[in-house]
Amino acid sequence: MPITPFKLERYFAKYEFSTRYLLSSSDCDGLPMHDLLGLADGECRALWDNLALGYTESLGHPLLREEVAKLYSGISMEDVLLIVPEEGIYMAMQSILRPGDHVICTFPGYQSLYQIAADKGCEVTQWRPEEEYGWRFNPDFLEENLRPNTRMLVFNFPHNPTGYLPSQEDYARILDFAKAHDLYVFSDEMYRLLELDPADRLPSACEQYEKAITLFGMSKTFGMAGVRQGWLVTRDREIFDQLAAYKDYTTICGSAPSEILALIALRNRMSITASHLARIRRNLGLLDELFARHANLFEWTRPRAGTIAFPKIKIGEGAMSFCQKLVNEAGIMLLPSSVYDYDDRHVRLGFGRENLPEGLEKFEEYLKTY
Q1: Which residues, 6+ apart, have CB-to-CB distance to 75 below 8 Å?
Q2: Which of 207, 261, 292, 310 is such that its CA lies 20 to 30 A from the CA of 231?
Q3: Crossing angle of helices 62-69 and 256-267, rounded to 10°
Q4: pLDDT tens per residue, range 160-181
Q5: Within its chain, how far is the Cα of 288 from the centroid?
């Protein structure tokens, strides 16, 4: 299958490891190995100390699958398949979709969520948010764009890059639409558990609908992108078996150290997420103040969840030009909306890192040139 270049990843590859101030990162600070191992209970410590670096179980370590299942209601370890997060998107799209199928997908978004389907020969309809209503994804759009060949609904909540989270009512309408038309659902929930108000947390799609496939993992919420550990969850046995069979053609099995490290983190998820949320709230307060001071340069829509936002630039140049000058002249990286193929007037800004205050100070110095 021919592939389309992944614009966001190519942009990050150019600047991510050579730029001092990453104001575009979508994850929380990476957990130090020493700190994480210090959280291990006796069972995890013994698993780590006696770990053999051989093949692991194809479906994933049973203890980790059991721990993942505890994140959900009505889910057992038999519904959990451990994967690499990006791999999980690829496997699901390849397993379920056929050329000529129609897919509705939230947009802008992580390119894999719609590009794999498009490259496979599917028709993809972009479900665009209403910026004037806080980046709302209006459920009315779904019925208006349903086709006889619609096979899958793809969404990402909390949303990358806007930080939008639907209301409980809108979310129920979205899932009711999928159920009424017997659609498969792929729900990217990589930023789950980072809701600013826990009362806003949505049920996972896999809890609400049998034909839903949920993606989650350690990269964003837990600050463990380097372990490359994620999971797919579905109660549909036929789809689960298809996904498990497809994994034999991708990674086959997971990384033995990564599975134990993920197990340690999930057993300590309350303390880890509390620490990240405290940092996120602090950083959002700083962003509120910065954008209030520079309302002539930016239009700020405060996110409801996650670690990223999508402010609009009001200066007399495009986002790509602004970001290129910013990284080259000030060593500060923001992500232009054009890498999402979404206009050239927004930038993705990440606020999950500890050094954001220092980066914002340098950023505000640069803004004095405008």
Answers
A1: 69, 206, 207, 233, 235
A2: 310
A3: 30
A4: 999 999 999 999 999 999 999 9
A5: 23
In this structure, the strands spanning 212-217 and 184-188 are parallel
Give me 2's structure tokens.
């021919």
Give 187-216 pLDDT, tens digit per residue.
999 999 999 999 999 999 999 999 999 999
Rounded CA separation 106/112 (Å): 12
Residue 242 carries which side chain, given as an amino acid letter?
Answer: Q
Per-residue model confidence as pLDDT tens digits over 245-268: 999 999 999 999 999 999 999 999
% pLDDT > 70, the chain? 100
Q: Are residues 286 and 239 in the same domain?
A: no
> How many CB atoms neighbour CB 229 within 10 A?
28
Within this chain, do residues 263 and 274 fall inside the same structural domain, yes or no?
no
- What is the amino acid identity at position 329? E
Please list, in sequence order, all residues whose beta carbon lies within 8 angstroms of the beta carbon of residue 107, skipping any fewer than 6 positions away.
Answer: 114, 126, 127, 128, 340, 342
Which domain CATH number covers 283? 3.90.1150.10
Domain that holds residue 242: 36-268
